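REQUEST FORM: STRUCTURE PREDICTION
Request ID: SP-0412
Submitted by: Lab K.M.
Chain count: 1
Length (residues): 226
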Amino acid sequence: MLWCAKVVSVRFATYNIRHAQGIDFFIAPRRVARTIASTGAQVVGLQEVWRVPGFFDQTVEIADAIGMARAFSTAHRTGPLRMGNSVLTSGRIVSQRCIELPGRTEKRSCVLADLEVDGVALRFACVHLTLHRATRAKAIELLAEVLPVDEPLVLVGDFNATESELEPLRTMLTVPKTPPPAFPSFLPKSSIDHIAFSEHWRLEDELTVRSMASDHLPLVAELALR
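STATUS: Completed
RESULT:
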């Protein structure tokens, strides 16, 4: 896959939407969509997305409301309910695959997509790591081994991890150590949401966007190709 050498920037976001349940406990995918639109992000990774085939699909509803291409990857199933991660983009999704990760009570996975955004070809990965520390450590080590960094890559997600746990990822990606806290949304204190990137990128800006559409805030990063 070729990537564009001109100097361009792309705005990325990561957002744990808690199945579109806001802090008022109402499930409102279109409110999530409005929040995403307000970030101005061209590529978005969503976690805790729900789907029941034939009944409802939060990825489709959110993406269609704001005119973005979408992809969904199941991480865990409970009966007919699929829970997983989604990729949204104003560009084009060329391909996608699922990387299965260690899980405990709930299975976990990482969705990896090849995208084209404003003439730039890039790889984008979205993950939601477990609360169980030992299992999370195995998942982080696996991601550090299998994620391709030969071309522009951005990894986003709710890592649920301390700074020291992310060191294996830092052997191949830049993981900013002080991202703005995005959890809980009503009084953000924890920096467990991250946007990491390969050496092809330079961080221009990183911020959160206020919203009550989930118990997390969306974390947004402006990245420029070197």
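NOTES: The longest strand covers residues 43-52.
Reviewed by: T.R.
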